[in-house]
Amino acid sequence: LLQHENLKHFTSITVAAVIFKVTIKNIERELICPACKELFTHPLILPCQHNICHKCVKELLLTLDDSFNDVGSDNSNQSSPRLWVNSPSLDKIDRINRPDPDLLYNVTKQGLTNYTGWKRNSLTPKTTIFPCPGCEHDVDLGERGINGLFRNFTLETIVERYRQAARAATAIMCDLCKPPPQESTKSCMDCSASYCNECFKIYHPWGTIKAQHEYVGPTTNFRPKILMCPEHETERVNMYCELCRRPVCHLCKLGGGNHSNHRVTTMSSAYKTLKEKLSKDINYLIGKESQVKSQISELNLLMKETECNGERAKEDAITHFEKLFEILEERKSSVLKAIDASKKLRLDKFQTQMEEYQGLLENNGLVGYAQEVLKETDQSCFVQTAKQLHLRIQKATESLKSFRPAAQTSFEDYVINTSKQTELLGELSFFSSGIDVPEINEEQSKVYNNALINWHQPEKDTADSYVLEYRKINRDQEMLSWNEVEVCGTSKVISELESNCNYAFRVRAYKGSICSPCSRELILHTPPAPVFNFLFDEKCGYNNEHLLLNLKRDRVESRAGFNLLLAAERIQVGYYTSLDYIIGDVGITKGKHFWAFRVEPYSYLVKAGVASSDKLQEWLRSPRDAVSPRYEQDSGHDSGSEDACFDSSQRFTLVTIGMKKFFIPKSPTFNEAENRVLPMPTSIGVFLDYDKGKVGFYDMDHMKCLYERQVDCSSTMYPAFALMGSGGIQLEEPIMTK
């Protein structure tokens, strides 16, 4: 029966190994140590959560140790910054003989845990800091050095499976067979040994405790069944530190431990949470397989395009250099011809002068001819010839007295000055680097009914045109393809954007065929609903004695404060100033709508929101001295009535803005004063969902909801505003496509 079960177990392991072999070959990249670039060997988990081989971290520390020794002086003492690593040798531990299987055996190959009762070296190494090969951030191993690191058994097991898949033809031999050993069929995780069928039956007889041992397929990777704490070697880890992101024991959490003030959770809870997160993320990636494949295809196309563009750029560079070579060769030829012509002319002059001087020698040239003339005895013939000859002799005599070469031997005028050209050639660079990246002006760029994007080019550069790119960012941060718009100026209005979405914008400049890199991306969030267009109503409830409306009817100012000052001489007792209401000229009966406005910073009290038609009639028909905002819901005043009679749904909702502050109405959620007072946004948005009976107030700069509540939308709803004292309201102007 045992043999039958073993055969079934071995068969299932073999089948699983075949399946695993197909998938494991694709993950080799994750199994490579960032330091040695080879498969992990006894990987350790660094504080930054990256993995590194045990031997690699030792080599890094020894390298730092040697560098300190190189810098130190000859008379350095024991206080010099030497990094000591007191970790047992791997080779020594690997040579440990197999123990008695009955003995509790918790050995790890880097010496973090060993036999029960084994005590670590009592020497405390100094703090060791080195750069992580994975992220290049400094890693502080603390006083315990390597001894304080966990061994990544899970990664080690996966690496071992990969090694087995890679060396499927290499058998693992039985550790207890007499020579020659037989091929092992299983390995015991409790005994840390591999067995053939016969040896397994001998050392694990049926009906004994050893028969309960855990056995797997043949392997050389034996890990302890219980993970022990590196800080307290006799304690098993049973908690998880959320701050340090590592398992700890109960002694680490107790007073005096390194994690005493840290937030910890149970190992089962951490296991469940991390497994759920990992499974969720893996399922998400698996669900995005088609997207990943499309992006891989896009990357392949980009690689091919890059290769083609690179070759084209090389050809263009060669062409430009060949043109320079042609110019240099042509210039070289003309310069050499000029030098040769000057040299020939000078040599001819020297040759002529030399021949003349040779004629002054006896029996040569002019002197010889004169000597022959002197032999003439006929006086008339002699005088006829001697006159001209005498002039020549005199000229030769004078030149002999003041010798001057017929030409210069120096070619100083023909020295080529290439210093300027050499400097220019030394600065030879790519023309595309001469056009800077345009910068998007975040202050002048905004989104409302449309998106307005403004940018500028550095003053030293001028671009012929620009290309504005934009794309939608999904809620799961999925990036869609870029849309491109060619622009001649430095601003562009983008229309037909979806509501309540994030959009990324970037721009690049073109100068001829040269393109600059893309600018830094600007992320804008569109309003949660289509923009609702309206103007202030100058008829319904409008008080022209206190309010001043401009001709466009998109701006209103309150003059109540000025009238109060004119009548101040008659005021001897408390005087009450009422609210002056003004509403939009268009009502809402369905759908989702959004509008925005700006409140002037000098405004004392402004109320804004929505109100139903019947509520507005009630306000506007009531006498002004009878309606006090102290007893109205959402008035912004601290009245006791608001604490007791908060209605979950009412026919209006108004928030208070004033003195550069935004006041959230009191509610069970916002009860404390410090939670209800916010800085006044530059622009305030109002979102009304008529069908769901919900109204929200937004900070337009960040498109962030500041306050939201239910509202009774059983009748027509209007944008409503009210002012008290001096103040001003400006409706946000729609962004026109022109």
UniProtKB/TrEMBL annotation:
Keyword Metal-binding tagged: yes
Record's protein name: Tripartite motif containing 36
One Gene Ontology molecular-function label: zinc ion binding
Residue stretches making up the B box-type domain: 224-267
Annotated PANTHER family: E3 UBIQUITIN-PROTEIN LIGASE TRIM36 (PTHR24099:SF18), E3 UBIQUITIN-PROTEIN LIGASE TRIM36-RELATED (PTHR24099)
Domain annotation COS: ranges: 374-431
SUPFAM superfamilies to which the protein is assigned, alphabetical: B-box zinc-binding domain (SSF57845), Concanavalin A-like lectins/glucanases (SSF49899), Fibronectin type III (SSF49265), RING/U-box (SSF57850)
